[in-house]
Structures are given as structure tokens and as C-alpha cells.
């Protein structure tokens, strides 16, 4: 029976070890934990089988806390900071750090209640859970100005990345110019046309980058308006003869575009042009489309990040103009194409 107990404890250590290997990404942390487990196993081998209490005490000290007892979990009030935030225990005043990733995953807002469980997801990996309870308004909020879904631009005159527009409920709106923190630019590997979440304190123009959105992340749906809002003047008017030849003999490549593609095809063809289109994620098909097009349109809201990057790389390699389309409307599509026509003509003149 004593040998069985020893075997069970050894197995417990091995199970904990395997769990940490599977769930730990940081190599340095994993190396320290490996030494930790090996030390525990060696100490058990030195113990006599009859020392049941000694074995239990040693394993209790050596194993990560979450393997032998449930950590205390407390309720905290969330306080939003420029980056991430903190949980404040209203009774003890104790505070815990809340990472930005947790804020996103749990959809935390200032005043929300949350449970913090130390080592709840493993050794030194804490668990956070938002509670569906009334917000605590007793904790003062920090004055912060923030913009989600902000579009990154680059100002050549000051050699800085900036944001001047963001999507508000799906609609593109202007915001006061925000300089992006240069350390954050490096950390998030920021490039022009990236979409980010930014925040800054009042009277400061430099913003911290809270989050960099992947192109696959869903944007908020625009608020539905009356039909008259969407009606465009050109729909009730026939195109004049000059307009009908604006895109004559021009081949427009469109990557993605989803439900808007039929609108774009109609606008190009009624002006004398031709559309090549693909929804494929296959690199060969994307590159083939770019090669046979005079100009490439990449609707950033409806195309995956990988597909957009493939199209941009191929267009740059073949020195073909491309458009990052930020608005899905017909007028925006047509106007962007018109503004880039001179780039196509330059190529023709060079041939």
C-alpha cells in the first residue's frame, strides 16, 4: 500500500509536468519548470516508503499550487487603463493586473465585476472571469480618449505613423490626428493600412496601441438608415458618353469583396472596363489574377489578411498599382479607381 501511494504521487508529478509542457509557450519558463519537476522526483526517490507524511509534505511544496489545492478566488472591480487595466478588491483594496488580451476576451468595461483566480489556468497563469452583475460606479474612471478600428497612415513630413480616421459602428469617420507610440509601432509591427485600437489621455496627441486587429476579425455592422440615405445620384441618372469610356480597355482585378462584387462589376463594365475576380485563398490564383490585371483592388473589410498580403506583394513585384479600399460603397470604389488611372497610363506610356 505504501509503494502504491508513492507511485500515485510520482504519477501526479508527471501529469502536472506534461500539463505544463503542453500549455507553456515561453521556453525559459518551461526550462525552469522542468528543473522544478526533476528535483521533486529525485527527492521522492530519496525518501523511505514509510515516511508517508514526509512524502505528502514534500510533494505539496514542490508541485505548482494549482495541482494540489484550489487557489483563492476573489471578486474585483475592473478599472480601465490606457493599456489593459487592474482589478480592485473593494473590501481589501488589493489590486491585480488585467492584461489587454483579457479585456478583449472578456469584453471588460470600466466598473465591471470580475473573478480573479491566481494560477487558475496553471502555474503562474491566472484566470479572469467577467461576472454578469451590475457595474460598480464607486471607482473613479481614468479620463481616456480611445478609438477602436482606427486606420494607420504614415506622415512623410514627420516620419511617423498616425491615425486620422476610424470606423464607428461600421462607418468611416475622421478623428483628431493621433501620433502612434513608436515603441508600440515596433512591438505590433505596424504598417500603413493596419487597423488598430488606440488610446491616449486628454491633451496628449501620442496614442498607445491597445490592439492590432487581424483582417479576419469582424467589424461592427453599420447602423441601418433610411433608404434615402443610401440612394446615390448616379443611380437615377444615365452615364454620359465620356463617363462610359472612363475605364475603357482597363482590366480591374478585385480580391474578395464578398456581397459587394456584383456592384463593382456593374460599375466597371458600364464604363468600358473588365473585371477579374477571385474569392480563393490559394496563392497561385491570387497572383494569377494580379498578373492579368492593370490595377488591383483590395477591399480591406472583406478580405483576409493573408490574401491581401499576397496580392500586395505580387502587385509590388510586377509594379502594378493597387488600391486598399476602406469603404464598400459604389461611389468610393469608382472614385478610388479614377484617382489611380494616371498610374495605369504611366505604365502604358513606358511600354
What composes the largest sheet? Answer: 5 strands, antiparallel
The end-to-end span amounts to 89 Å
CATH architecture of the largest domain: 3-Layer(aba) Sandwich
Q: Taking all residues together, what is the mean pLDDT?
A: 81
Helix content: 25-40%
Radius of gyration: 29 Å
Structural class: alpha/beta
Beta-strand content bin: 15-25%
Secondary-structure element series: HHHHEEEHEEEEEHEEHEHEHEHEHH
Q: Provide a count of the helices.
A: 12
Number of domains: 4
CATH structural class of the largest domain: Alpha Beta
| Strands in their spatial order, largest beta sheet | 3-2-1-4-5
Shape type: elongated
Number of β-strand runs: 14
CATH topology-level fold name of the largest domain: Rossmann fold
SSE blueprint and pairings:
Layout: H1 2-23, H2 27-46, H3 52-62, H4 65-68, E1 73-80, E2 85-88, E3 95-98, H5 100-106, E4 113-117, E5 127-130, E6 145-155, E7 160-168, E8 171-180, H6 182-187, E9 195-200, E10 206-212, H7 227-230, E11 251-255, H8 261-269, E12 274-278, H9 283-291, E13 295-299, H10 305-317, E14 322-325, H11 330-339, H12 341-350
Parallel strand pairs: 8-10, 11-12, 11-13, 13-14
Antiparallel strand pairs: 1-2, 1-4, 2-3, 4-5, 6-7, 6-9, 7-8, 9-10
Pfam families: DUF2325
Protein name: DUF2325 domain-containing protein
Family: Belongs to the UPF0751 family.
Amino acid at each position: 500500500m505504501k509503494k502504491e501511494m508513492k507511485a500515485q504521487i510520482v504519477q501526479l508529478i508527471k501529469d502536472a509536468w506534461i500539463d505544463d509542457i503542453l500549455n507553456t509557450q515561453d521556453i525559459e519558463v518551461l526550462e525552469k519548470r522542468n528543473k522544478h519537476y526533476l528535483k521533486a522526483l529525485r527527492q521522492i526517490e530519496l525518501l523511505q516508503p514509510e515516511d508517508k507524511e514526509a512524502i505528502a509534505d514534500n510533494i505539496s511544496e514542490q508541485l505548482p499550487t494549482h495541482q494540489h489545492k484550489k487557489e483563492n478566488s476573489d471578486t474585483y472591480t475592473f478599472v480601465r487603463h490606457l493599456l489593459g487595466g487592474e482589478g480592485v478588491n473593494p473590501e481589501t483594496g488589493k489590486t491585480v493586473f488585467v492584461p489587454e488580451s483579457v479585456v478583449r476576451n472578456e469584453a471588460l468595461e470600466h466598473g465591471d465585476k470580475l473573478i480573479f483566480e491566481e494560477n487558475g489556468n496553471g502555474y503562474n497563469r491566472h484566470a479572469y472571469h467577467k461576472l454578469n452583475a451590475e457595474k460598480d460606479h464607486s471607482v473613479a474612471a481614468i479620463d481616456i480618449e480611445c478609438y477602436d478600428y482606427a486606420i494607420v497612415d504614415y506622415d512623410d513630413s514627420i516620419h511617423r505613423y498616425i491615425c486620422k480616421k476610424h470606423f464607428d459602428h461600421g462607418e468611416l469617420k475622421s478623428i483628431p490626428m493621433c501620433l502612434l507610440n513608436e515603441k508600440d509601432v515596433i512591438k505590433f509591427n505596424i504598417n500603413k493600412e493596419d487597423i488598430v485600437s488606440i488610446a491616449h489621455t486628454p491633451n496628449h496627441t501620442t496614442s498607445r496601441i491597445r490592439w492590432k486587429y487581424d483582417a479576419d476579425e469582424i467589424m461592427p455592422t453599420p447602423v441601418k438608415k433610411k433608404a434615402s440615405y443610401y440612394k446615390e445620384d448616379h443611380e437615377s441618372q444615365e452615364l454620359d458618353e465620356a463617363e462610359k469610356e472612363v475605364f475603357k480597355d482597363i482590366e480591374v482585378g478585385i480580391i474578395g469583396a464578398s456581397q459587394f462584387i456584383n456592384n463593382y462589376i456593374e460599375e466597371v463594365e458600364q464604363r468600358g472596363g473588365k473585371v477579374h475576380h477571385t474569392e480563393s485563398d490559394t496563392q497561385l490564383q491570387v497572383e494569377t489574377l494580379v498578373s492579368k490585371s492593370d490595377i488591383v483592388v483590395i477591399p480591406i473589410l472583406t478580405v483576409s489578411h493573408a490574401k491581401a498580403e499576397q496580392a500586395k506583394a505580387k502587385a509590388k513585384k510586377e509594379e502594378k498599382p493597387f488600391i486598399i479600399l476602406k469603404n464598400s460603397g459604389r461611389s468610393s470604389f469608382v472614385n478610388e479607381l479614377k484617382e489611380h488611372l494616371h498610374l495605369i497610363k504611366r505604365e502604358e506610356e513606358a511600354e
